[in-house]
């Protein structure tokens, strides 16, 4: 709790956010739960509206293109709001009690299972089906007896591509932190790394090497999370029906919120001015809506093979975020090792599988 007190003290004395705003955010922690409930309720209501009964009950009622676009627009607005709240409210995470902090690993574990299932069970088979002609052409080109596994290859390529980007961001952040440390502007301590793990178990790995924050490392983290957000948005945008969009909203929203926590904490501790802080917050928050719009446009204007390729790349993105960004950091965070923690790694693994299983069974209706 020493780290939390330090962050709270910094927030109160900082000119980054107005004092009244910081007090308001700190006194409205329940707003996060209300916001999450609002998102879930809105998704359910909009889903029911899309499938309201038709004049001829014997014929299934499918959403039109315009209604699907409106649904994606509503989802974009909700994800934008979640991201803004996440970036502007790091004080909420730092002021939580240990019992409330134990809830965050569970949410991350559940969201990771949902993302992994969305990647493997939903997106990958559809991508394989749409890329079948291209895979067959590659088979004839090489004279093979079996079709080339093009979709899984693209998934793995995207997975390792994002991994290489993360490693590069880590290197940039580490170099920036070392330079700042030599200049006497920052100190790297185990306590800071521990505090960062509490604040954002689902954040980019760039956050785990920044120590007590230099502007360069914060910008590197902003770039990495923005790229992830755009790819997440593309994964939502390429979905061709309401059920496909609704299936991944919770997981993407959870990742967006917790990543916003990490980014907001990072930017705040770097001491950016109000105008710059708000600009970065809006930039990060807009990335997922932009990705949704981009994915929608590409899916409509592209041939089946290109849509399959985009689905495969989105599948690789969800697989990476679900495993590397959410599940593994959740199982490795230091609060799980403390005596007072009520979180058990086995329980988290079961929660993750529950999310995976629930998302997998949705494939029966999607």
TrEMBL record:
Keyword Transmembrane helix included in the entry's annotation: yes
Keyword Transmembrane: yes
This protein's UniProt keywords: Membrane, Transmembrane, Transmembrane helix
Listed name of the protein: Zinc transporter ZIP1
Organism the protein comes from: Cymbomonas tetramitiformis
Location within or outside the cell: Membrane
Highest taxon listed in the record's lineage: Eukaryota
A molecular function (GO) term: zinc ion transmembrane transporter activity
Transmembrane spans: 21-49, 69-91, 150-169, 276-298, 310-331, 343-365
Any one annotated GO CC term: membrane
Topological relation to the membrane, as annotated: Multi-pass membrane protein
Main location, first listed in the record: membrane
Signal peptide: none
Family annotation (Pfam families): Zip (PF02535)
